[in-house]
Specification:
The protein is α/β, with parallel strands linked by helices and about 350 residues long. It is about 20% helix and about 20% strand. The strands form five sheets. Strands 1, 2, 3, 4, 5 and 18 form a six-stranded mixed beta sheet that branches. Strands 6-15-7-8-11 form a five-stranded parallel beta sheet, covered by helices on one side. A three-stranded antiparallel beta sheet has the order 12-13-14, with no helix packed on it.
């Protein structure tokens, strides 16, 4: 018996990019459960935000943009962002009747019959004419490998499992990574830990002055060029630098943000450099970012020799039925909103049998 259900479009992921896509599908006449379905792996609304550490309050969040059609207003800046955003996303799903199915794991997307795609999930299969992939990066934390890593007797953990600063009381902590998460962790942990050490592969770049619209466009263009070439995307933040705010200035003045170059090996008791310098540590915290969670698309063979998926706008160049939103240049809250709208425009053209240039994200 064939229990495969048919729809016109499947949205995978219900974070900012997925909900934006679902909203625009709904707004242009697609009916949830009849014409499209939204599948989400998480246990509840909120996308990756629901997993953020408790000390990341809403007031510390940089650049959270409201979803299309419904503003996020009157949020208490002292509340954890995980709670604020999860409640907002839940209200949004209800307001627009998006009928997100969860928890549903998409295990593989492969070629189906009749020019359709087959989406295999933990809750049965779906046959679709188009797929909007909005799976983000949270499910794929990046762990670098260094000699001796397996010998370390202390605790190693990633930003994805950061418990908050109190967990590091009285410990010697090495924080690895020069992004926003690494600096936030350091500034929090320093007040509890016995000692902190900050190491990064490249010297951090601190940005003075306001981040203008022109600066934003230039940063997005750099990331966009990588995905156009089929290279793995870098985050937009990686090319914008770190804003030099009051907390960063204080951390620099107090020596908390005194950066050391990347160590060469890990020892049972800490880390060591080739010149003989060493630091004893109880914890290594890897604030080393994430990679795109797109392994379920592997059967379609979309990856280029460079390791990424070549994308024009939001459309995968190798398969116009696949759109990636929240990927590469649209991996920001405002970028995800725009990408959702652009993807839906292209999907409508595809389903109507029209071809042409992809909508700009």
């Amino acid at each position: 018996m064939n229990n495969t259900r048919e729809v016109e479009a499947v949205v995978v992921g219900a974070g900012q990019a997925g909900l934006s896509s679902a909203y625009h599908l709904r707004r242009t006449g697609f009916v949830p459960e009849r014409d499209f379905v939204v599948l989400d792996r998480s246990p509840g609304p909120g996308g990756a935000w629901q997993f953020r550490w408790p000390s990341l309050t809403y007031g510390k969040v940089h650049g959270m943009h409201s979803l299309p059609g419904m503003e996020l207003t009157d949020a208490d800046p002292a509340r954890p962002s995980s709670q604020v955003v999860a409640e907002y996303f839940a209200a949004y799903e209800d307001a627009f009747d998006l009928r997100v199915r969860r928890p549903v794991e998409v295990r593989a997307v492969r070629e189906g019959s009749g020019g359709r795609l087959l989406v295999e999930t933990s809750d049965g299969d779906w046959s679709t004419r188009a797929l909007i992939n909005a799976t983000g990066t949270w499910e794929r934390p990046f762990w670098p490998r260094y000699p001796g890593q397996e010998t370390f007797r202390g605790l190693q953990l990633h930003t994805a499992r950061y418990p908050g600063p109190e967990a590091f009381a009285g410990q010697r902590v090495v924080v690895v990574g020069g992004g926003a998460s690494g600096t936030q962790h350091l500034l929090e942990i320093a007040g509890y830990a016995a000692a902190t050490t900050w190491v990064t592969r490249r010297p951090p770049v601190f940005r003075e002055g306001p981040f203008t619209e022109e600066s934003g466009r230039a940063a997005v263009a750099l990331v966009e060029e990588r995905v156009r070439q089929g290279l793995p995307p870098e985050s937009v933040v990686s090319v914008t630098g770190l804003p030099l705010n009051d907390a960063i200035r204080q951390g620099l003045a107090e020596g908390v943000l005194e950066r050391r170059p990347m160590f060469d090996r890990i020892t049972p008791d800490g880390v060591e450099w080739a010149d003989g310098r060493r630091v004893d540590a109880d914890v290594i915290l890897w604030a080393t970012g994430f990679r795109a969670a797109i392994d379920h698309l592997a059967p379609l063979r979309l990856r280029e020799p460079g390791g990424g998926i070549r994308v024009e706008g939001t459309r995968a160049v190798a398969d116009p039925r696949i759109h990636l939103v929240g990927y590469g240049p649209s991996a920001s809250t405002i970028g995800a909103n725009r990408a959702g709208r652009a993807a839906v425009r292209d999907v409508r053209r595809l389903l109507a049998g029209r071809t042409g240039e992809p909508a700009a994200a």
